[in-house]
Amino acid sequence: MKMLIDLFITFAKIGAFNFGGGYAILPFIEKEIVINNGWLSPHDFIDLVALSQMTPGPISINSATFIGYRLAGLFSSAVATLGLVFPAFFIVIFVATTVKKYRTCEWMDRAFLGLRPAVIGLITASTISIGRTSIVDIKSVLIAGITAVLVFKTKLNPILVIIIAGAVGGIAYSL
């Protein structure tokens, strides 16, 4: 029972501060899951991010579901996911009514001007954190570089790029 309460509260905290989307919240998820609770190792967290990317849905929801399931099975995955969604549901309703009511206010525009670069900072912090654990040798540097080129220059579908990177990684690390 304590595990279920801890899962719900942890993911409710994450859900309450899930501003900027999945990548922006990754440092907070990592802190709560890896550092504060010790539910995953840093390497397992990187695997979680990869799995969450490859499955449909937002990273934060996929993370909650995966961690809950890994810790205590199907019911705890539902508890963790509900914990994540519960505060977000009320926050979205509040923000939607507030934005609608004050959409023409100058202070609202200024607030969004401040939020945009903050989200970029959070995404950058997430990239650095994940990079420290994921970039371990020349093969991983090459896979990361090739992946970036494929996404930015060729405009390949990211799902196809993930599949290609998985196949290349499987081959490269088997040799």
Which helices and strands occur, and which strands form pairs?
Elements lengths: L1 H15 L5 H15 L5 H13 L4 H14 L1 H29 L3 H29 L3 H16 L4 H15 L3
Helix pairs in contact: 1-4, 1-5, 2-6, 3-4, 4-5, 7-8
How much of the sequence lies in strands comes to under 5%
Work out the radius of gyration. 18 Å
SSE sequence, one letter per element = HHHHHHHH
Portion in helices: over 70%
Distance between the termini: 46 Å
Low-confidence regions: none
Q: Overall pLDDT, averaged?
A: 85
Report the strand count: 0
Question: How would you describe this protein?
Answer:
With 175 residues, the protein is an all-alpha fold. The protein contains eight helices and no strands. It is globular, with a radius of gyration of 18 Å. It folds into two domains: 2-134, no CATH class; 136-175. The mean pLDDT is 85. The longest helix is centred in the middle third of the chain and has 29 residues, at 74-102. The chain has helices spanning 2-16, 22-36, 42-54, 59-72, 74-102, 106-134, 138-153, 158-172.
Summed up:
This protein has 175 residues and is mostly helical.
Main attributes of the structure:
175 residues; mainly alpha; 2 domains; 0% strand; globular
